[in-house]
Specification:
Elements lengths: L7 E6 L4 E2 H11 L6 E6 L4 E3 L1 E2 L4 E3 L11 E4 L10 H12 L3 E4 L4 H6 L7 E2 L6 H7 L4 E2 L5 E3 L3 E4 L3 H15 L1 H11 L26 H8 L8 H8 L3 H12 L3 H19 L4 H8 L4 H12 L3 H16 L24
Parallel strand pairs: 1-3, 1-7, 2-5, 7-8, 8-12, 9-10
Antiparallel strand pairs: 4-6, 11-12
Helix pairs in contact: 1-5, 5-6, 8-9, 10-11, 10-13
């Protein structure tokens, strides 16, 4: 019987002036995972670390913790700037070993100051994108995206976009079902889609709780049925126009676009966790026929559903043999693309 694979080691680098929410996002997302992840917080000089927006953190570990990290997450700072030489050297050494590097919000300035974003796309909080571009002209700064996934280096915009990026990482590492479970525990939108080279084509407002929560929950239980705007409106006891307006307000997208993304997500879970034939996956996800499933799935995920299933199985088999848990063990070449807007 093979040994269980080692947990994936996440190390959060909290530097002075760290933003409280940016720090809390990776800690909450990757903590308490029952063997999938372990989480360590480190800083340049162990001891109290000033926090912007909260009391100081007492951090026990220094930069030596980066030496054993599979993924390093750098949260944002209130006054972004280049890292100190010890931080720069420790991050560069970790990256050279193949450690996956992640920044949230203005943490991108630390990665850029280490040279890890040179020649890459990256993003940060919209208030600082121009500053990042001026300070680091060798970086292609995406101004209007939620996150950028360059494979071994990932960056996010500010605040809630950090949740999107962390859930995207969970999805890469462990699949859609695991990411959706963690999203539910965070009371967060389970998936905000990205594009080729894995960045969001445009920022999408975060889903908020509101009067349509019940209708969306009902729709998720009936994805395999014919669902139209008119049927959703009847379920919500609203006019068609009011339903469309409130969907935009609460999710940032039209009802049928939201349904399409939910159905793609259901198809991903079925492909990951079952041997169901494509006809069954298409029917249970509400995508109709296998041909329709293939077309829409490829537009969204970047690969055909059969290739997605094969890749996921190959990764699961490697884990069962005690294979790598670092970023090299993540699902390769599975970009998430923006789905074309569905008709209302």
């Amino acid at each position: 019987m093979s040994e269980a694979p080692a947990p994936h080691r996440i190390v959060v680098l909290a530097l002075p002036g760290v933003l409280a929410l940016d720090y809390g996002i990776p800690v909450q997302t990757f903590g308490n995972w029952d063997g999938t992840y372990t989480l360590t917080v480190c800083t340049e000089t162990p001891g109290p670390v000033p926090v912007e927006g909260g009391p100081a953190l007492l951090v026990e570990h220094g930069l030596e913790a980066l030496a054993s990290a599979d993924t390093v997450v750098v949260p944002g700072q209130a006054r972004p700037g280049p890292p100190s030489e010890p931080v720069r050297a420790a991050l560069a050494a970790a990256a050279a070993r193949g450690t996956r590097m992640v920044s949230i919000c203005t943490g991108a300035f630390v990665l850029a100051g280490t040279g890890l974003l040179d020649g890459r796309r990256a993003t940060t909080h919209w208030q600082h994108t121009a500053e990042l571009a001026r300070a680091h002209p060798e970086v292609t700064v995406e101004e209007d995206v939620l996150y950028v996934d360059e494979g071994d280096v990932l960056t996010s915009a500010g605040v809630a976009a950090g949740i999107d990026l962390c859930l995207h990482i969970v999805r890469r590492d462990s699949g859609a079902a695991a990411a959706n479970r963690r999203a539910r525990s965070l009371v967060a939108a389970p998936h905000r889609t990205g594009g080729q080279a894995q960045y969001i084509d445009r920022p999408t407002p975060a889903a908020r709780s509101g009067p349509l929560d019940g209708v969306r929950a009902w729709a998720l239980q009936h994805l395999d049925e014919p669902l139209t705007v008119d049927r959703l409106a009847r379920e919500a006891c609203l006019s068609r126009r009011t339903l469309i307006r409130r969907f935009h307000e609460e999710t940032g997208m039209p009802p049928m676009q939201w349904l399409l993304e939910a159905r793609i997500d259901r198809a991903r879970e079925l492909l990951e966790g079952s041997d169901a034939p494509m006809e069954t996956v298409a029917r249970r996800s509400g995508l109709g026929t296998p041909a329709n499933l293939r077309t829409l799935f490829r537009r969204q995920v970047g690969v055909p559903p059969s290739a997605y299933r094969d890749t996921f199985r190959a990764r699961t088999a490697e884990r069962g043999r005690g294979g790598p848990r670092g970023p090299e063990g993540s699902m390769p070449n599975l970009p998430t693309r923006a789905v074309p807007r569905a008709p209302e």
